[in-house]
């Protein structure tokens, strides 16, 4: 558990504990809307295919039975519908059976929708793109969380949107009071929020804050674009999305199977509310239709109860790996830091208590084949230069545990050079 550690030929000692703490809002002053430029480091990390793996060279040793079972469903669909799938495009909005299963799946989280309300996409990033394209035009202003998912920053840059960063607590998400202040000054067209287990912090908005966000959307007539990609990964409870409490169709819900099941599927969805038809039009222009065999196999996988069973096991596994990661950094890191302990999602947010530039730390670590995710990636401001996101997607053992000890060494080397 990381509470004690052994010193050779000396004895056992209480380990230095870095306590989880509620982070204060880091940006009380609201900066004016601006066009943004995503750091080149984002492309570096994505090229390494390691946004959630500190040491990708370690490989994967776990035999994932759920994925093997999913592939059987997909292979069966490919055999049964081979000729039809090869000669005809699928419904642009997606496979009816898959949409039915997604609609039923959301009922457990109090989101009452019909299959025809759903449009299948090429992953959550594609869903966010379709939502933003349908709601906004070049030059419009959007509000985002700070720190924010870097994919949202990338989309805003690509679409030529102006961005206002709204401070977010590391535990309770976006501060709706600050959002309200911004709304009184600027014409915000949309607000992008990950209300449940947001990356990078793992924050989960309380029900009162979600209701406040819906009330603001109604009062100021802007659209909430909700990224719900981590919503199924709650360790203790599955909190409702903002969509569940919005009765006036101000919320577009985006998600996918990428974080809850497989990155390789590239199957997501968007529940577009009053923008449903515009979203379908944009999909036809940019993507036409989605892979039919994948959708059919997924529909069978979910209907058979296999996705539900997978999630029950995966949540338990992630919680154990979260605890193991926290224990490891407490054991191996001998510098001062604080961190979040999220109740779901895939990552913890770490703040180094000393002025260590984590972009420079990233560059030094990369020479050792270690891939860190520095705080600068999650904002266009300079607020998170001494922060890191660490993921617990992979078990922290063996080579990955050694990678953490190397990070400790690199931090001390940087501190010595700064003296």
Description of the structure:
The protein has 2 domains: 4-61 and 315-418, Aspartate Aminotransferase, domain 1 (Alpha-Beta Complex), CATH 3.90.1150; 65-307, Aspartate Aminotransferase, domain 2 (3-Layer(aba) Sandwich). It has helices at 40-47, 65-80, 82-87, 96-107, 124-135, 150-159, 176-183, 207-220, 276-286, 292-303, 306-332, 358-366, 399-418, and strands at 4-7, 11-14, 118-121, 141-146, 162-169, 173-174, 188-193, 223-227, 251-256, 268-271, 337-339, 347-352, 373-374, 387-391. It has an 8-stranded mixed beta sheet, with helices on both faces. A 4-stranded antiparallel beta sheet has the order 11-12-14-13, with helices on one face. A two-stranded antiparallel ribbon has the order 1-2. The protein has 13 helices and 14 strands. The model has no long low-confidence stretch (mean pLDDT 91). Helix 2 (65-80) crosses helix 10 (292-303), helix 4 (96-107) runs parallel beside helix 10 (292-303) and helix 5 (124-135) crosses helix 9 (276-286). With 419 residues, the protein is α/β, with parallel strands linked by helices. The two termini are 34 Å apart.
So what's the overall shape? Answer: globular
Biggest sheet: strand arrangement: 3-10-9-8-7-4-5-6
Q: In terms of per-residue confidence, which ranges show pLDDT below 50 for 5 or more consecutive residues?
A: none
What is the number of helical segments per DSSP (H or I, 4+ residues)? 13
CA(first)-CA(last) distance: 34 Å
What letter string, H or E per element, gives the SSE order?
EEHHHHEHEHEEHEHEEEHHHEEHEEH
Overall structural domain count = 2
Q: For the report, how would you describe the main beta sheet? A: 8 strands, mixed
Q: How big a fraction of the residues is strand?
A: 15-25%
Q: Work out the number of β strands.
A: 14
Oligomer: single chain
- What name does the CATH topology of the largest domain carry? Aspartate Aminotransferase, domain 2
Q: Taking Cα atoms only, what radius of gyration do you get, to the nearest Å?
A: 22 Å
Fraction of residues in helix: 25-40%
Q: Which structural class matches the secondary elements?
A: alpha/beta
Question: Quick one: CATH class of the largest domain?
Answer: Alpha Beta
Q: Write the CATH architecture name of the largest domain.
A: 3-Layer(aba) Sandwich
The CATH superfamily of the largest domain turns out to be Type I PLP-dependent aspartate aminotransferase-like (Major domain)
Averaged pLDDT: 91
């Amino acid at each position: 558990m990381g509470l004690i550690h052994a010193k050779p030929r000396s004895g056992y000692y209480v380990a230095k504990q870095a306590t989880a703490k509620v982070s204060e809002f880091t940006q009380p002053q609201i900066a004016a809307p601006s066009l943004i430029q995503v750091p080149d480091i984002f492309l570096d990390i994505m090229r390494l295919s390691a946004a959630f793996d500190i040491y990708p060279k370690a490989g994967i040793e776990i035999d994932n039975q759920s994925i093997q079972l999913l592939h059987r469903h997909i292979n069966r669909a490919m055999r049964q519908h081979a000729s039809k799938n090869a000669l005809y495009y699928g419904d642009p909005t997606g496979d009816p059976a898959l949409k039915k299963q997604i609609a039923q799946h959301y009922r457990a989280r109090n989101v009452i929708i019909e299959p025809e309300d759903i449009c299948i996409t090429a992953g959550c990033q594609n869903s966010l793109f379709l939502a933003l394209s349908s709601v906004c035009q070049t030059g419009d202003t959007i509000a985002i969380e700070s720190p924010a998912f870097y994919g949202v920053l990338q989309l805003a840059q690509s679409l030529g949107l102006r961005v206002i960063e709204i401070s977010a607590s590391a535990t309770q998400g976006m501060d709706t009071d600050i959002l309200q202040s911004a709304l009184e000054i600027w014409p915000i067209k949309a607000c992008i929020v990950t209300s449940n287990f947001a990356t990078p912090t793992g924050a989960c908005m309380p029900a009162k804050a979600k209701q406040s966000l819906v009330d603001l959307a109604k009062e100021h007539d802007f659209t909430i674009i909700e990224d719900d990609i981590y919503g199924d990964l709650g360790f203790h409870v599955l909190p409702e999305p903002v969509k569940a409490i919005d009765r006036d169709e101000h919320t577009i819900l985006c998600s996918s199977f990428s974080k809850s099941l497989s990155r390789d599927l590239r199957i997501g969805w968007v529940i577009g509310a009053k923008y449903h038809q515009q979203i379908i039009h944009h999909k036809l222009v940019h993507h036409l239709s989605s892979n039919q065999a994948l959708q059919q196999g997924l529909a069978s996988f979910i209907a058979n109860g296999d996705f539900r069973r997978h999630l029950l096991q995966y949540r338990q596994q992630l919680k154990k790996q979260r605890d193991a990661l926290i224990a490891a950094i407490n054991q191996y890191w001998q510098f001062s830091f604080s961190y979040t302990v999220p109740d779901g999602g895939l990552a913890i947010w770490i703040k180094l208590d000393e002025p260590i530039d984590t972009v420079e730390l990233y560059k030094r670590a990369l020479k050792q084949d270690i891939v860190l995710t520095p705080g600068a990636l999650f904002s266009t401001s300079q607020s998170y230069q001494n922060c890191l996101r660490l993921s617990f997607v992979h078990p922290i053992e063996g080579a990955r545990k050694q990678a953490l000890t190397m990070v400790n060494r690199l931090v001390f080397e940087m501190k010595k050079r700064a003296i």
